[in-house]
Amino acid sequence: MSGRLLRLVCTATVAAGTVLAPLPAAAVPEPQAPGQRPVAELLTDLQSLYQGAEQATETYNATEEKLKKQRAEVDRLDSELTRARLSLHDSRGAAGRLAREQYQNSTAISPYVRLLLARDPQHALDEGHVIGQLARERAETIGRLVGTEKKSDGLARAARKALDGQLTLAARQKKERDEVQQRLADVEKLLTALTPDQLTALAAFEKTDVDKAQRKLVTSGALGDDNREPSRAGDRALRYAVQQIGKPYEWGAEGPKTYDCSGLTSQAWAHAGTPIPRTSQEQWAHLPRIPLRSLRPGDLVIYFPKATHVALYLGDGKVVQAPRTGEKIQVSPIATYPILGAVRPDGRPKGARGTARSATTSR
């Protein structure tokens, strides 16, 4: 991490009350009352609930992105259908004029008879040429009318289909929103049932667990030589993320006041001029993967087997992340959660990944 960026991080974390380095592990008090659940069991349950909530959040975010695209498609088709209907109105007007002219000229002598009776055959031939040209124009008018009617009907069917898709996505989004809220309610229910001593023990136990995983990862050499400089875009993305330290986590949020995990990473890279997918699953699926030993500041670290959490690598074994409900954007050890792998938003395209494979670790 560069000196300027390190100073920026220190300033932001001090202002937000965030601690960069892990504190010494605190002693974990044992449950006092008989029948009290072990702290390790409580932590497992709580982590499972948080992970379930985050997975539901990312699913909701993915549906939200699809819904945005579907709304844009509905708007596009509506605009095109409006233009087609205006064109159809003009074509029908032209066809109506054609019909009136044909009716008004229905008693006229045919061009063939007119040619036979003409005193000036050349003039009659010229007149016939004009009549032929008018006939072709009339045929083109009818053709345009038929074509415009077909196009209008096709667009109307496509618009109805797109609207049906939008309504389906909106219903799915509501269902997924309800699932997120239910999972978060389960988290709150568990936390409110704990005593202050249990909450203290829970926090200490979780920190001890993270410290242990961090030491194991760092001493294993999996991070390689951790002195790499960020790319220009990576530096901009990381600076943006650091400036958000201290802002609250909120599921489904993309800033500027609150963020969820992938809302932070996607906005950071968007501000760096490199738009990336909205969700952690899509970031893992579509961005170039890199081994952990090649991590440089600004890269994204993906967590959990289903890629349900993501953070920006800061350097020195740390990440900037929006952790979970009830917490704020902060600097954390890279091993805070089980690592799935890492991706580089400004790296090689997905098809050029070659043999670059993600390194994985487990807590």
Please explain how this structure is put together.
The chain has helices spanning 3-16, 39-104, 111-117, 121-192, 196-219, 232-243, 261-271, 280-286, and strands at residues 289-290, 300-303, 309-315, 318-321, 330-333, 339-343. With 363 residues, the protein is α+β, with helices and mostly antiparallel strands. It has two domains: 3-22 and 196-352, endopeptidase fold (from Nostoc punctiforme) (Alpha-Beta Complex), CATH 3.90.1720; 55-186, Helix Hairpins. It has a six-stranded antiparallel beta sheet with strand order 1-6-2-3-4-5. Strand 3 and strand 4 (318-321) form a beta hairpin. Helix 1 (3-16) packs parallel to helix 6 and helix 3 (111-117) packs antiparallel against helix 4 (121-192). The longest helix has 72 residues, at 121-192. Residues 6-15, 18-35 and 352-362 have low confidence and may be disordered.
Strand content: 5-15%
Instruction: Please describe the biggest sheet, giving its number of strands, its sense, and whether it closes into a barrel.
Output: 6 strands, antiparallel
CATH superfamily of the largest domain: endopeptidase domain like (from Nostoc punctiforme)
Q: Unreliable stretches, pLDDT < 50, 5 or more residues?
A: 6-15, 18-35, 352-362
**What is the subunit organization of this protein?**
single chain
Total domains? 2
The first-to-last residue Cα distance is: 25 Å
Number of strands: 6
CATH topology term of the largest domain = endopeptidase fold (from Nostoc punctiforme)
Q: How would you write the strand order of the largest sheet?
A: 1-6-2-3-4-5
Counting DSSP H or I runs of 4 or more residues, the number of helices is 8
Determine the fraction of residues in helical runs and give it as a percent range.
Answer: 55-70%
CATH architecture of the largest domain: Alpha-Beta Complex
